[in-house]
Amino acid sequence: MKMFSLADMPSTTTVLSAYASIAGSMMLVRSIANEFIPHQFQAYLLSSLRYFFLSPISSQLTLVIEELDGISRNQVFEASEIYLRTKITPSAERLRVSKASREKNFTVTIEKGEEIVDEFQGIQLKWRYICSESNSNDPYGSQLRSEHRSFELVFSKKHKERVLDSYLPYVLNKSRDIKEENKVLKLYTLGSFYDDAGGGGLWGSVNLDHPATFDKLAMDPEVKKALMDDLERFVKGREFYKKVGKAWKRGYLLYGPPGTGKSSLIAAMANYLNFDIYDLELANLQCNSELRRLLVATANRSILVIEDIDCSVELRDRQFAAAGGFEPPNSQLTLSGLLNFIDGLWSSCGDERIIVFTTNHKDRLDPALLRPGRMDMHIHLSYCTNYGFKLLASNYLGIHENHRLFGEIEGLIENAEVTPAEVAEELMKNDNADIALEGLTKFLKRKTMERDEVKNEGVKEAEIQEPKKQKIENGEERKFVRRTLRRGTRTICRRW
Ligand SMILES: Nc1ncnc2c1ncn2[C@@H]1O[C@H](COP(=O)(O)OP(=O)(O)OP(=O)(O)O)[C@@H](O)[C@H]1O
Ligand SMILES: [Mg+2]
User: What is d(CA 439, CA 416) in angstroms, rounded to the nearest whole number?
Assistant: First the structure.
């Protein structure tokens, strides 16, 4: 057996110099690696080595869903956050609560480190919320604190396809439904005094909290049903519009005297569809290009409203023609500019767009607007009928059956030519149904008498129309006052 003597042992200096040369080589290898192998790849190599040597092969797969995808928000993260709010169990120990000033409800979400277990088609899934803070120096020397937020979704590797193909799309759909349910409708207008700015700051918005609904509207029941069916078909029509190669938009023209419910109907449509409203006052615009910028800044699933279309561009077109008989210059805001843009670019760059024009005088509209195919439905809102009266009596006074004065009122109402707004105003004068209905009866008699007097005096046909004309003019004056007020104050919602 060979024995080692002390003399055979390497001397301390040899050991030290060998160590120094190994350490030197290591440093050389590391600096070469640092220089030639990209940072991410080094991390990957390291984790693979660690995985290979240290951890047993796992049957679990972890999907990392980060908040940011580059500089934009990751849609899957946003959807997961909303979806997981519905999955919080009583066992959760820490939750986050928040509320934006204009929201109605609290938002409760999981806090960092919390886990949520979910099940989908027999697959067990574990969600974990990760939130890490990091400090970095900005170029000016101050410390910036940034938060990296992500979800980790852990499940058995064998379900990878089903999770990617079915579970995540399911989470996206669910979150879209939840968002839709909690959506606060907005009314967008041009102006600078609103709290929120939308569409690149061109539009200002307020919450649209209008109580109008279809069942509260006094209008011809058949027209109401046809409109509701039409809207229903429209929102379900994605595939249809694609198939026939048409832009997914729909146009409605609402016409009738002031106070017959045109604006209320638009609010009811918005509530029914859960669509925001963009209220466009053409009188405030100077030229077609300004209009274009505004229209492009409107969002999908919205209703673009242009009220009193007869009072805005159409007249200007005519004035121009009357003045010189030539086409207005391109820079001018024109009806044809508006229609071309609505038919063309604007409608094809968005989805689920509804456009509504209103007018008190359909007869004064430019034929271009009435041409078939331009507005898909023309809806006439008119004076209060017996049916309308009963609906208003049930809404305002809670009378669902009959009342001793109904017979008399029904005999008067259709001849009196009163608007639903006038009837509603009478019904609101007293909480006591008897007194309110007596007041309405007197009002209807007075209206009928006024008409009869005019007839009995043998005034010409044109003059018979005078009270009606007066009514329209009064209505327009009211509207003007309302609009003038609105410009300076925050009364916009009351108009709707
Ligand atoms: N058809 C209706 N059904 C129920 N309420 C109505 C109806 N029409 C009008 N009203 C009541 O009258 C008010 C004014 O109506 P609205 O502003 O909708 O009329 P409009 O047709 O838009 O008038 P304008 O032509 O002056 O803009 C509404 O807030 C509502 O209370
Ligand atoms: Mg109106």
Answer: 15
Q: Domain of 75?
A: 60-137+144-181
**Which pTM does this prediction carry?**
0.70
Nearest residue (CA) to ligand 1, atom 10: 421
| Claim to verify: residue 219 and residue 288 sit in the same structural domain | yes
402 in the same domain as 372 = no
Chain mean pLDDT for the chain: 79
Query: Is residue 170 located within the same domain as residue 201?
Result: no
The whole-angstrom separation of Cα 33 and Cα 55 is 25
Segment 108-123 mean pLDDT? 90
Does the Cβ of 360 fall within 6 Å of ligand 1? Answer: yes
Alpha carbon of 258 to ligand 2 centroid (Å): 7
Q: Is 262 in the pocket of ligand 1 (CB under 6 A)?
A: yes
Q: Write the CB contacts of 459 (distance below 8 Å, at least 6 apart in sequence).
A: 466
What is the structure's pLDDT at 53? Answer: 55
pLDDT digits (tens, 9 = 90+) for 361-406: 999 888 888 887 788 999 999 999 999 999 999 999 999 888 999 9
State the ipTM, two decimals: 0.99
How does pLDDT run across 167-223, given as a tens digit for each residue? Answer: 999 999 999 999 888 888 889 998 644 444 444 467 888 888 899 999 999 999 999
Longest dimension (CA), the chain: 146
The answer for residues whose C-beta is within 8 angstroms of residue 197's C-beta and 6 or more apart is: 203, 204, 205
Q: Whose CA is nearest to atom 14 of ligand 1?
A: 259
